[in-house]
Amino acid sequence: MGRPARFLGPSPEPIAPVSYTDRLAMTQSQDILMHALIPSARNRPSEDPIFAIHGAALARAAKGEDVIDASLGTLMDEDGGLSVMPTVIRALAQVNPAKAAAYAPIAGERGFNQAVVQEVFGPAGLAQDSLCVATAGGTGALHHAVVNFLERGESLLTTDYYWGPYSTIADQAGRGVQTFRMFNAERRFDLAALEQGLHELAGRQERILLILNFPCHNPTGYSLGGAEWRDVVQILRGVDRSKPMAVVLDLAYAKFGAPGTDAWVHHIADLAQDIPILAAWSASKSFAQYGARIGGLVVAHGDAEERTRIGNALSYTCRGTWSNCNHLGMLAITELLSHPELRASVDRDRDALLSMLGERVEIFNREAVQHGLHYPRYEGGFFVTIFTSDPIQTAQRCQADGVFVVPIRGAVRVALCATPKAQVARLVASLASGVQGLQGAIQ
Predict the structure, then answer these.
(1) Running DSSP on this structure, what letter comes out for residue 79?
(2) Same domain, 124 and 218
(3) Which domain holds residue 95?
(4) How many domains, in total, are found in the chain?
(5) Per DSSP, which regions of 17-141 are E strands?
(6) Tell me: the pLDDT tens digits for 411-430?
(7) Reading across the β-sheet that carries 406-408, which strands appear in turn?
(8) Predicted model pTM
(9) CA quadruple 78, 83, 89, 90: dihedral positive or negative?
(10) Tens digit of pLDDT for each residue in 251-289?
């Protein structure tokens, strides 16, 4: 478990012959550069593999091919354009330009932080025991959790299906990723594997950082039910308390979950009295503002002195990483979260997007069952995962049909968020053809 996923990218261009003189000069130049870079940075990949697949899809489309690009996690409308929320656009346009142009406070605008705390933990009554710092999207929130709650050389714990940049964040920070099996034989969340993973990690290192990406897990689309959340909390209560532990809830897609999936906050609330509960919150998906890079790390903990220490540490990391965040976006999102009329308007905008995505989910589930595809419970969210014994071959077969999906370990990830409903049936048919003759399995 925990092996890096293999991805498909565009085919390399043919390489022209190079003369001996030129080759010698290149070698000497590379030697100088390789000695300038630290060893761990010398073989970094130049492009994110998902964006490489997306680029290959765009290249095929530019040649006039009828392409379904189900690779990238952006919500597209039924005409194939990027979905936006009109109320958000208006709010951005109405921000005072002089305020937007000024530096934001290092830890974020106070009003923004308070609004995000209420958004995340208010429903469970945890707001008075919580703090928030502004971050560069949800990715920035995850970064801050990793570098402040794990020592160098230690590993975070998460499911064996996970968003690839978890590894990038950890590796860049000198930490690692340890995984536990996400699904049991019934394709349900493997609670026993979670418990085993926690105890094994506690036996190997001095502290524990668990990342759970629910609701609407990326890449599988899975959301925990109420009974599963209760069992998770019970397992967390049983972890060796002599080892410091923090739990991160990656909420990137939470606003696109099915009704009832937001009940996690009530199940996990009591844990905050004993251990830090961190929420990686992002405006990228929930406000359809991927480029604004507005996020926050929200922390709930019952000990006021410990909260102060955590807040100080996170603010220090902000200064040492990006200094401060996008002031324009922060001011606009504060208005949208704080003013009842604007909030009601933006909720209506989001409900329209939820309805659009929900229609795709319904079509997908119907078609996928008819084609006999193997996949986890999928009720909402940007992605779903189709299990296959040969992800590379499955993705290649789909690409031959003009359908672009992302191969990962034991499966392919499908961005239904980017697939208009008129194309969902074709997408599913291509996936079924891609796994034909292969044994769909959870590995």
Answers:
(1) T
(2) yes
(3) 87-338
(4) 2
(5) 68-69, 130-136
(6) 999 999 999 999 999 999 99
(7) 383-387, 411-415, 406-408
(8) 0.90
(9) positive
(10) 999 999 999 999 999 999 989 989 999 999 999 999 999
